[in-house]
Amino acid sequence: MTEQVTEARDPKSSPITKSSGNASGDKIFAGLSYGAGALILVVLAFVAIFLVTESLPALAPTLFSDQDSISSADNFWVYVVPLIGGTIMASFIAILIATPVAIGIALYISHYAPRRISTPVGYVIDLLAAIPSVVYGAWGMLTLSTALVPVYGWLHDVLGFIPFFSGDPSTTGRTLLTSGVVLAVMILPIITALCREIFLQTPKLHEEAALALGATQWEMIRMTVFPFARAGIISSVMLGLGRALGETMAVTLVLSGGVFTLSLISSGNQTIPSEIALNFPEAFGMRQSELVAAGLMLFIITLAVNMVARAIVNRNKEFSGAN
C-alpha cells in the first residue's frame, strides 16, 4: 500500500499534460508580449531618428549652404550647455530634497503609523501625484517664490562665500532653487508611493527574526527593510529624476530666464524643457533646429540616467540576507 501511494505521488509516474487550448493561449499571449516589447523599441528608434534628422542643421550648420551658424549663440554648444546645466541643477536639487523626505514618509506609513492613520495618508500621497504640473507651477510662482525671498537674503548674508549662494539675491524669488523645491514637491508623491509598496513587501519572517533577536524598530528596518528594498528605492528615485528632468510647465512658470549662473538664489537660468516650451511655437528654420537639438540632448541625458540606474538596480537587486 505504501509503495502504491509513493508511486502515485511520484511526478515521473504521473506526468502532467498540457491541454492544446492552454498551449495555444500561451503562444498568443507570448506573441503579444513580444510584439509590445518590439513596438516600444520601434517607437524609441523613430523618436531618435526624428530628433537626429531635425537637429542636423544646428549640430552641423556647415553642411547646409543656406545656414552658416545658429541664431542664438556663436555655436550650438555655447547655446545648449547653459540649458543642460540649469536642467541638471534643478533636477539635482529636487532629488536632494525629495528623496529623504519620501523615504521617511514611506517608512512612517508602512512601519510606524497605525492603520487608521496610514490608510488616509496613503490616499493623500496618491492624490498628490495626480495634481497637474501647471498647478504646482502656479503655486511656486505666486506663493512659494514670494515666501522664499527673505530666505534668499539670509542665505546670501550667511553663505555668500559659497558660489551657489553668491550674487545678488532675487527680489522676486523666481530662481533655480525655487524651481528645484517645486520639482521636489512634484516628485515626492511618486517616490513615496513606490517606496511604500516596496517596504510593505519585505518578508515578515525577516522582520520578526530581527525583532526576536533583540533589535529595535530602527535596527530591524536598517537590517532587513533597507537591504530588501535597496533596488526598489533606486528605481523609484530614478523615476522621480526622470520626471524632474522632463518637467516643463512648472519650471516655465517659476523661472524668469536669463543668463546661466551658478548662483541658486539669483534670477536667471533656464532648463531645456522650459526653453523649448517658451520658444517652439514661434520657431522656424534654424531656430526650430536649435530647439529640437536641445531636445536631443535631453533625450540623451535621460537615456544615460536610465541606463546607469538600470545597471545599479541589476547589481543590487538581490536581497543580501537569507532570501
From TrEMBL:
Main location (coarse class): membrane
A GO molecular function held by the record: phosphate transmembrane transporter activity
Region (Disordered) location: 1-21
Pfam families named among the record's database cross-references: BPD_transp_1
Coiled coil: none
Location within or outside the cell: Cell membrane
InterPro entries in the cross-refs: MetI-like, MetI-like_sf, Phosphate_PstC, Phosphate_Transport_Permease
Biased composition annotated in UniProt, kind: Basic and acidic residues: 1-12
Domain ABC transmembrane type-1, chain residue ranges per copy: 84-309
Topology of the protein relative to the lipid bilayer: Multi-pass membrane protein
PANTHER family associated with the record: PHOSPHATE TRANSPORT SYSTEM PERMEASE PROTEIN PST (PTHR30425), PHOSPHATE TRANSPORT SYSTEM PERMEASE PROTEIN PSTC (PTHR30425:SF1)
NCBIfam families: phosphate_pstC
Protein family membership: Belongs to the binding-protein-dependent transport system permease family. CysTW subfamily.
Name by which UniProt lists this protein: Phosphate transport system permease protein
Organism: Brevibacterium jeotgali
